[in-house]
Write a structure and sequence with these properties.
The complex is a heterodimer. Chain A is of the alpha+beta class. Chain A contains 5 helices and 10 strands. Chain B has 13 helices and 12 strands. Chain B is elongated and about 90 Å long. The model of chain B has no long low-confidence stretch (mean pLDDT 91).
């Protein structure tokens, strides 16, 4: 995949250079402080990617600690963050797992992410399966509003529905993230289950995403199909964010590259 | 009323359950131990499901028994056959439970004194304003409530002043609730205010601090926005001021201060969350603080509380340049965060606003720093995005406790340099 990209961009840059610019601009690779905002931003993208691919109603990962970060600036290809970090599954777990990731930001594309973690199967499959069976047995579809509620409360039986939303919304948040724009899922405004006869569970969600640094709340409609041991199948449309304009980057400062 | 009190403790336990329709509670007045053992033998018969609420004592041969509806006939016949006296205390337990529940709910909504104030939940503005008065009433020698201005919609803006005397002693300012949806911010400040008031005279650090310095706390900087998050839109951030002829409401109060006003990290669009307003200090909520500080030149530290992200920051936000006092502020912040983390292990990052979170102009602590209030800090409390603004109420007190550790650390650093 990368060799193809290089082939294409190398051609382009070669063409550009033939206009008389004989300077070879080398790619830059520099170590970043792990506290650096840009490094943490890239890590959040990797976490969204991790949750989308390996998350489930009983597996939601959080960044425990960023151990190492470096930035590779590749002319005409973008800015690639190399990360080493520890994650936790759920809030109270003491067990941390290690991951490495490469996150490439290039203009408006989806951050190209390569992720490797030192665990194969996530825990919580048994609970996922129980949840799945319980819902399959139900005659009446699940319906919910304002999860968590204004006081941050989530009923225990609703938690897997909420976590499935986080995992599914991670797909949206991963896609929308840039070096500057960061996302968290703020709340499920509505969830409706559609009963299916095949092996999938299906839900339509309206979720609110919190966008930083614009501080805007983005409303997204999300259609999710899921069964145990699989990433959710997510389709979405988001109402246009007020910040979707070419001037977005300048309004919120340059992405951090140098110390 | 007395009867209700006696049973209310028991009812709290059974409140969680339903299904007591038609059950009765009988008070049995036993003549002697023989009668007592007769009744106890009935209790042993599982199918009757008798539930003894009050066992007889040698000195007090009274028994209270809950009798399920289905066993009433049998049990009453047994008592009468054996000449055992009884009376009906509760005719229908379920009816009483329902009315008691309603009574409890009603009484929690009317919190009359600060001793019954529930610090582990989020409160409405009127509950907070009532609590403020109750706190001042409970600690008259220490506390005063000052009105520093009026919000756009006409609500009073209050500051709690903790002072043991003197005239404009060196002081520390703490504010919360500038952004309406950040509920854990005023919730933590409320806990801390109560902590300060309660600890004065009991705890050496705060007692000695208050003998030299004053503390000012503005619990709800943006009451209009706060009310709006309770009534209309939980995600509201800004004030509720009206732009003449405009279709959108409100200004981001923390972009409205006169520090790089209108610069990066703000919007000139009134419909955006970071709208800076028509001009600096256009918001009465902001002007009130500015005005207060201009009339009190002895404030040594200005600390603003926000959520979420788990950060402790210092200037600058409007420019990505380190302030002259960077080293010192960084040192104080590091120390404060160490104390915070030691409480529950919660991890915080520190840095200038621009380094830690993003470039943002017109922020309060940048303005105060430029006014000479060197020890200007901003907190972003729990969490890091999982619940975000909707932080569960069970986390309020832990958040407040750990933040208080950081706060004390900052106060100690400021105190020793003032």
């Amino acid at each position: 995949m990368y060799s193809v990209l290089c082939l294409v961009s190398c051609f382009i840059s070669l063409n550009g250079m033939s206009q008389g610019n004989n300077l070879e601009i080398p790619d830059i690779n520099m170590k970043l402080r792990t506290e650096a905002r840009a490094a943490r931003q890239a890590a959040s993208v990797a976490i969204h990617y991790l949750n989308y691919h390996h998350g489930s109603p009983h597996n939601v990962f959080q960044l425990h600690q960023l151990k190492k970060a470096s930035l590779e600036i590749m002319v005409n290809e973008g800015r690639k963050y190399h990360l080493k970090f520890e994650v936790r599954n759920g809030r109270f777990s003491n067990v941390t797992k290690f991951c490495t990731a490469k996150v490439l930001f290039y203009k408006k594309s989806v951050p190209d992410t390569v992720l490797k973690c030192n665990f194969k199967d996530s825990d919580g499959f048994k609970e996922d399966y129980e949840f799945y069976l319980n819902l399959r047995k139900r005659m009446d579809p699940v319906v919910g509003y304002n999860i968590p509620d204004n006081f941050g409360f989530i009923a225990p039986e609703t938690r897997p529905i909420w976590q499935l939303a986080i995992v599914s919304a991670s797909y949206i948040m991963w896609q929308k993230s840039t070096e500057v724009m960061k996302y968290n899922m703020a709340q499920i405004q509505e969830v409706h289950q559609q009963i299916r006869t095949d092996e999938f569970l299906q839900f339509t969600y309206i979720v609110l995403l919190h966008e930083i640094p614009s501080q805007e709340i983005i409303t997204c409609n999300m259609w999710v199909m899921w069964q145990p041991k699989q990433s959710p199948n997510v389709k979405y449309t988001c109402l246009p964010s007020p910040t979707e304009s070419f001037s977005e980057e300048s309004e919120f400062g340059r992405p951090e590259g140098m110390e | 009323m007395g009867k209700l009190l006696v049973f209310s403790a028991l009812l709290v336990a059974v409140c969680a359950q339903g299904g007591f329709e038609g059950d009765q509670v009988l008070r049995i007045t036993l003549r002697d131990e023989e009668q007592a053992s007769l009744v106890m033998s009935m209790e042993e018969q599982d199918h009757l499901q008798l539930d003894i609420w009050r066992s007889p004592l040698k000195t007090d041969l009274v028994m209270d028994v809950r009798v399920p509806r289905g066993s009433l006939q049998t049990f009453k016949v047994f008592l009468e056959h054996n000449g055992i006296q009884y009376s009906t205390m509760i005719e229908d337990l379920q009816v009483l439970i329902e009315s008691e529940k309603a009574e409890l709910e009603r009484s929690t909504m009317v919190e009359r004194t600060f001793t019954t104030f529930n610090y582990a939940t989020y409160h409405t503005l009127s509950e907070i304003y009532t609590w403020m008065d109750d706190l001042v009433f409970a600690f008259p020698g220490l506390l005063q409530k000052l009105e520093i201005g009026t919000s756009f919609e006409g609500r009073a803006l209050y500051v709690l002043k903790f002072s043991t005397g003197g005239r404009q002693r060196p002081a520390i300012w703490i504010d919360s609730g500038i952004h309406a949806r950040e509920w854990v911010s005023p919730a933590s400040a409320i806990w801390m205010a109560n902590k300060i008031a309660s600890d004065y005279g009991q705890e050496p650090f705060i007692t000695s601090l208050l003998q030299r310095m004053d503390i000012y706390m503005e619990i709800v900087v943006n009451p209009d926005g706060y009310v709006y998050t309770h009534t209309k839109n939980r995600m509201w951030r800004k004030t509720r001021s009206v732009v003449p002829g405009g279709k959108c409401f409100g200004v981001d109060a923390n972009r409205n201060f006169d520090a790089g006003f209108g610069g990066p990290g703000t919007s000139s669009n009134p419909c955006r969350e970071t709208y800076h307003g028509p001009y600096a200090n256009s918001e009465s909520e902001v002007a009130a603080i500015v005005n207060f500080l201009q009339n009190n030149k002895n404030i040594k530290s200005f600390i603003s509380i926000h959520s979420y992200s788990q950060l402790l920051m210092f200037p600058f936000g409007y420019k990505c340049v380190h302030p002259a006092d960077y080293q010192e502020l960084e040192g104080i912040a590091k120390s404060a965060v160490r104390s915070l983390t030691s409480m529950y292990g919660t991890r915080y990052k520190i840095g200038s606003i621009c380094d830690a979170i993003y470039q943002a102009s017109g922020g309060s602590i940048d303005w105060t720093y430029n006014q000479g209030i060197k020890y200007s800090f901003a907190f972003e409390l729990r969490d890091t995005g999982r619940y975000g603004f909707m932080l569960p109420s069970r986390e309020i007190i832990p958040t407040a406790k750990e933040t208080w550790e950081a706060m004390k650390s900052i106060m100690e650093s400021v105190g020793s340099r003032s």
